[in-house]
Amino acid sequence: MNRLLGLALICFLMPTSDRAAASDLFSVRCEGGAPVRPYFATFDIDAKAVVFETPPIDVETNFGINVHSGEIISTNDGKIEFILHVRPGRIDLIFDRNRKTMTWPGFDDPTFRPTLTHQCTVTPPRSILSFRVREPIQHPISVRCEDAGYMYFTMDAASKQAIFERGKEGRLYRGEVTDVRDDEITLSMNFDVPRQVVWNKSRQTITIEGIDGDSSRPRGVMQCQEVAPRTMMVYHARLWRR
């Protein structure tokens, strides 16, 4: 009996696969500089990948944010050491999960740049919709249309943001949510020609409305399914291959 109780306790204390998976993908919001400006990093520990969003040049307008891919080189003692691939070289950074700090190592001669340490907040993985958006995206929905190959729509009714991905290294198209009713969400997507797109949750379909008088852009209906929300890690493979 005691042995069984001991095994039960061990199983209870051990993280489940779901909990472990959740902790392997996360984001941080850090703040530094003068005036203080936020910047973000999204980590995938299993893939040893990082996507880093730079602070805005102008805090009021949120202008000047860029994204860089990175690679995790060490995860010892709660410290995640990683490098960012920037031209013409690289930047080495350290995120401390215990202290929740981001360290920017300085040069040997601190006259040029001393070591900087910024406070951070750990958050759920940032949505792909969050890039260059001021307000955090809380409840995004992602849909994959398997019959059409690598194709995703990600949308958020509250912020009215939407993104379409086509091809693993293809272009991202932005759009907006224009209507939400019952189990349907209507999007206006900024393709080469603006098109109306409707996601029907109960039917599990994406409908791309046709354009009157344009036979090359007819109405199309695809069978799709809701998947885990797409995160900022989408940018990693795209940037890595540049």
Name a few traits of the molecule.
11% helix, 17 strands, 242 residues
Description:
The protein is mainly beta and 242 residues long. The strands form two sheets. Strands 16-15-14-13-12-11-10-9-17 form a nine-stranded antiparallel sheet, with no helix packed on it. An eight-stranded antiparallel beta barrel has the order 1-2-3-4-5-6-7-8. The chain contains three helices and 17 strands. A hairpin with a 4-residue loop joins strand 6 and strand 7. The chain has helices at 2-13, 17-24, 234-240; strands at 25-32, 37-44, 49-53, 67-76, 79-85, 90-96, 101-104, 116-123, 141-144, 151-156, 161-166, 172-181, 184-189, 195-200, 205-208, 220-223, 225-227. The longest helix is centred in the first third of the chain and has 12 residues, at 2-13.
In short:
With 242 residues, the protein is mainly beta.
Strand order of the largest sheet: 16-15-14-13-12-11-10-9-17
Give the terminus-to-terminus CA distance.
60 Å
Average pLDDT over all residues: 85
Model regions low in confidence, pLDDT < 50 over at least 5 residues: 1-22
Beta content comes to 35-45%
Blueprint of the fold:
Layout (H helix, E strand, L loop, with lengths): L1 H12 L3 H8 E8 L4 E8 L4 E5 L13 E10 L2 E7 L4 E7 L4 E4 L11 E8 L17 E4 L6 E6 L4 E6 L5 E10 L2 E6 L5 E6 L4 E4 L11 E4 L1 E3 L6 H7 L2
Antiparallel strand pairs: 1-2, 1-8, 2-3, 3-4, 4-5, 5-6, 6-7, 7-8, 9-10, 9-17, 10-11, 11-12, 12-13, 13-14, 14-15, 15-16
